[in-house]
């Protein structure tokens, strides 16, 4: 009997699990303004972390897929020669993000990179050109699956951010938020 090792945790881990739990937004209309703003900052941090992780993952996936294509087409150029083409935007379709302006940095880039690397355990992506075809194909499938799951969770976090921003906007629009009082309260924190 063989036991398979558990795969990596879902993208964003428990922080994103918490945000995606419907209970996270329960009663948000009755929560104090500073608390709602804090919830939005938590969601924003997770979205930035997921966005950064997706970029790392997509770069690796693009390289692995291009190496598989290079081999299939018997392209004599080296992978290094192809890097400018691989990393350029010309080969990609339209962006799927919402074009959000990011005001925070990824929380722990090393941990995020570790998560991406854990998607294809046993496959060293530091020298893609030397990997056997079967390992490259395994890595491509694992990275693509990881990207799909990550993107789905990121969309969920963006919906939470939108709900929180909507609640904050409603409060300002309806006169429930006092900007001067809010700024004074934030200055104390």
Automatic annotation (TrEMBL):
It comes from the Bacteria. Residues 26-87, 124-183 form the RsiG-like domain. InterPro entries: RsiG-like (IPR049575), RsiG-like_dom (IPR055209). This is RsiG-like domain-containing protein. It comes from Klenkia taihuensis. The lineage of its organism: Bacteria, Bacillati, Actinomycetota, Actinomycetes, Geodermatophilales.
């Amino acid at each position: 009997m063989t036991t398979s090792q558990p795969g990596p945790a879902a993208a964003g881990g428990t922080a994103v699990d918490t945000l995606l739990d419907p209970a996270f937004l329960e009663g948000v209309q009755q929560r104090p303004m500073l608390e709602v703003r804090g919830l939005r900052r938590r969601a924003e941090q997770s979205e930035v972390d997921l966005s950064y992780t997706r970029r790392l993952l997509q770069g690796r996936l693009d390289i692995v897929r291009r190496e598989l294509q290079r081999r299939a087409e018997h392209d004599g150029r080296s992978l290094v020669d192809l890097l400018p083409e691989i990393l350029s935007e010309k080969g990609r379709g339209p962006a799927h993000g919402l074009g959000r302006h990011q005001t925070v940095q990824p929380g722990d880039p090393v941990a995020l990179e570790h998560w991406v690397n854990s998607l294809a355990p046993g496959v060293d992506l530091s020298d893609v050109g030397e990997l056997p075809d079967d390992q490259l194909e395994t890595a491509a499938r694992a990275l693509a699956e990881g990207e799909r799951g990550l993107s789905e969770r990121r969309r969920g976090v963006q919906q939470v951010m939108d709900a929180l921003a909507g609640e904050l906007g409603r409060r300002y629009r309806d006169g429930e938020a006092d900007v001067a009082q809010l700024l004074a309260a934030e200055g104390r924190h």
